[in-house]
Structures are given as C-alpha cells and as structure tokens.
Amino acid sequence: DLPRTHYENQRWVLFNLDSPLKFERKRELLSQFQAHINWTMSYRNDSDIYVPYARFVKKPNQNVNSIKILVDAFMNKTREIAWFVNDCSTASRRENYVKELGKYSQVDIYGICGQFSCPTNGELNCFKLLDFNYKFYLSFEDSLCKDYVTENLYEILSLNVIPIIFGSADYKSLLPQNSYIDALAFKDPFNLSNYLRKISTDQSLIRSYLEWKQNFNIYINDFYFCNLCDKLNANEIKGNRSMKISTVKRNLVKWFYDESHCTFWSQHYI
C-alpha cells in the first residue's frame, strides 16, 4: 500500500527489474498513482536511475597465455549447447526458437522444461558442469522488450562458454565486442546452427570470441542503490547522467508499457 500523503521533500521511485509484460494487469494501478512518482529506477537506459547488472573493467595487464588455455579447453569440450530453464512458456516464445534449433544442433535442456538435471548439491555445480562440458549456452530472455536483460547473461560470461543471446537490449553498448553470438541476427535457427558448427572446429573463430576475457574483468553490479543515494543527496551533478535531476514522468503507463516495444519471436522474425 502507498502512503496516504506524499510530502514535497520526498522522492517516490518506481523500482523495477522485470519485464512490463509480467505486470500487464497492473496498468490501471500504475495510472492511479503515476502522478506521485518522481523517478524511475530500472534496466531501461532512459530511467532516471539506470540499473545495469554488471560492469566490465579493463585489466591492467594482459595474460596472453590465458587465451591459449581457454581455447584448448573449449576445443576439448564434448557437448554443444546447454540451457537452464524452468519457465516453459514465455512471452518472447524463446521455447519455439529452441525447439527449432534442436532440429539442427544438440541442445541439452536442464530443468523442468527439459530432460536433464544439474547435480543436486547446488547451483555452483550447474555452472561447473557448463564450464567443463559445453561450448555454448542459450542466454534467452523470456521477454523481448526494450533494454531488457537479466543477470543470467553476466553469470554465463564469467565462464569459458560462448553465450548465445536472444533479447531486445542494446548488447553492443552493454558487452565487450565479440563476447556473444546474437541469435536474432541470423535468418533462422538453421543458419545459427550452421554458424555454431563452424565455430566449434575453427580455432581462430573460437579465439575471437574468448579474447575479450584477457582484456576485461566482469563484476556483478551490487552498488546501484548507491546511485539512488547520490541522487537523493544531489541537486545536480553536471556531466553524470545517472544523477541528473529530472522532471516527473507524468505518463508512466506509456513509458513503462507502450514505450518498451515488447514483441515476440516467430519463424519470420527478421
């Protein structure tokens, strides 16, 4: 429940990290209190307080030998594609894409939507299984909405696996170059499968997708509430977009729902 009084010196923040498609039934509720919201805080780039899941920091020194170790380990892997998933029917229809991809590539699906299960002694061992056995991982979002990306992708990037992404975020601005494969950049799953097969046997291509690891460290973001604190304590700090004081977004329903431009995959998506 909302407080009955919105004092002038208070800032009410709409904080959300989920797709708007998960809140379709809340449109009317948002329209009722949107005039009280001062700031937005989310994964959307145009939020007043932008919340990225991770950051990449340039390494001070490069270890050239580390790439050879990663490439050799990648070449020795015996399984092709893994996917950890428990939501079997999604707004993005990612499951339809994976079903089609499975006709041409080996896709091992873990969780209640598939036939495989991770070791029972914790999530860490799921990642170990992935790191040791698999070349690719399907980092497929459950919603195809503007800027929407989940933490799972960044966890996968910390492993010796090439993530295959499926989403509507601006990945080029979020991730290091050649750190992922974009499924939606291919005409269809068949063409993606052919490309994955090519990578699997091409040492120079494999290297090109792993080289970024010798240049960057990845840190999962746990400090975004610091940005909120800074913004609350600042009138304005010029040049820092995350702290710029903004006007109230009166039509939050339009911003949150309609301007997210959510869509879904079909065989003729591209």
Automatic annotation (TrEMBL):
Gene Ontology molecular function, alphabetical: fucosyltransferase activity
Protein location: Golgi apparatus, Golgi stack membrane
Domain of life: Eukaryota
N-terminal signal peptide: none
Name by which UniProt lists this protein: Fucosyltransferase
InterPro entries: Glyco_tran_10_C, Glyco_tran_10_N, Glyco_trans_10, GT10-like_C_sf
Residue intervals of the Fucosyltransferase C-terminal domain: 76-238
E.C. designation(s): 2.4.1.-
Matching SUPFAM superfamilies: UDP-Glycosyltransferase/glycogen phosphorylase
Domain Fucosyltransferase N-terminal per the UniProt entry, residue ranges: 2-53
Topology of the protein relative to the lipid bilayer: Single-pass type II membrane protein
Source organism of this protein record: Dinothrombium tinctorium
Keyword Transferase: yes
Similarity annotation: Belongs to the glycosyltransferase 10 family.
Phylogenetic placement of the source organism: Eukaryota, Metazoa, Ecdysozoa, Arthropoda, Chelicerata
